[in-house]
Amino acid sequence: MRYKIIFSYDGSEYFGYAKQPNKKTIQGELEGVLRTIFQKDIIISASGRTDKGVHALNQVAHFDIDKEIDESKIIVSLNKLLPTDIHIKSLEKVDDEFHARFSAKGKIYEYVLNLGEYNPLKRNFEYNIRNIDVEKMKEASKKFIGTHSFMNFTSKEEDEENYIRTIESIDFIHDGDILKIDFKGNGFMKYQVRKMVGVLLEIGKGKISSEYIDEFMALNERNIVTFTAPPQGLYLKEVIY
What pTM was estimated for this model as a whole? Predict the structure, then answer.
């Protein structure tokens, strides 16, 4: 029987989502607690990985178990045993054909910028930057929209599948000094959003022009952009099915 879970986490103290030997990860914590509850190894499959220091508002995963479970009781047990920086929001039985990663139609990632006074209490949850031209960033961001090769906007290895992705929309949402940039697409590769934001920030600073995007997307060989926004401002906001 297959169960789908939706959960959020603060990635500040973790070496990313994916399990790694001798390192604290989100997957490792979740599987450890599931092992305690069910007294057997339970492997969870997520919609995708997030990097060290990156957060999730609505990460999705699934796991299989050979018996019916009481979802409400398991949620209570999970949240009681998990560290307080991971929270299970929902748990439901799904069809065996459902797959957290391969059934996903798209994702929304959000990058949070603080354009005002530095706030040490939020240093792990936003990137503080001042004196940037947001209008230039907005205009330049249009160049990412559509179906393109993002070969030079990811650290993904060359022998993995392909680099073609579709960006449906990029929205800039202002709330006082806080600027949220939402990227909606059919999928994102390692560091892709952070590199896109990094380039947009350099454009906003006036250090490079928007033609930089055209140049690096037109290249037919690997020449990865050097600009990468810090991880703490990035959130997996939604997985679309």
Answer: 0.95
